[in-house]
Design brief:
The chain has three helices and six strands. With 119 residues, the protein is α/β, with parallel strands linked by helices. InterPro entries: Janus, Janus_sf.
Length: 119
């Protein structure tokens, strides 16, 4: 099952724009292996919409999910910048520093920053 966990992408976000995101802890059911992943999309009106979409897909792979918090991502593809900020009313504020480290692994040629700003 650890192989299945390794195949789950660390980051899945929209290619451009400002949108809600959540930080999830994905764990192998009945196991110890786990990792944190970032998911974000413009199609989500609320943070829980992201969780409601992602959770069943990961459960089908034999994983358990827990939302660690949320916020917003401003993804500027043209300028190669990503800004993480804000919080989720439903899940609270994610640890943006953890989210930024995940984003940097995928967007290594971007400037990736975070703040506690609301907007």
């Amino acid at each position: 099952m650890a192989e299945a966990l390794a195949k789950i992408p660390d980051v899945e976000i929209d290619p451009d724009g400002t949108f809600k995101y959540i930080l999830l802890r994905v764990k192998v059911k009945d196991g110890d292996a786990q990792k944190d992943v970032v998911r974000g999309t413009k199609s989500a009106e609320y943070h829980n919409h992201i969780f409601e979409k992602v959770n069943p897909a990961l459960e089908a792979l034999g994983m358990e999910c827990k939302c660690l918090g949320g916020g917003k991502i401003e993804h500027n593809k043209e300028d190669r910048k990503i800004r993480v900020f804000g919080e989720s009313t439903a899940f609270g504020k994610a640890d943006h520093s953890v989210s930024v480290e995940k984003l940097k692994t995928v967007f290594s040629d971007y400037e990736v920053t975070w703040s506690d700003d609301k907007k």
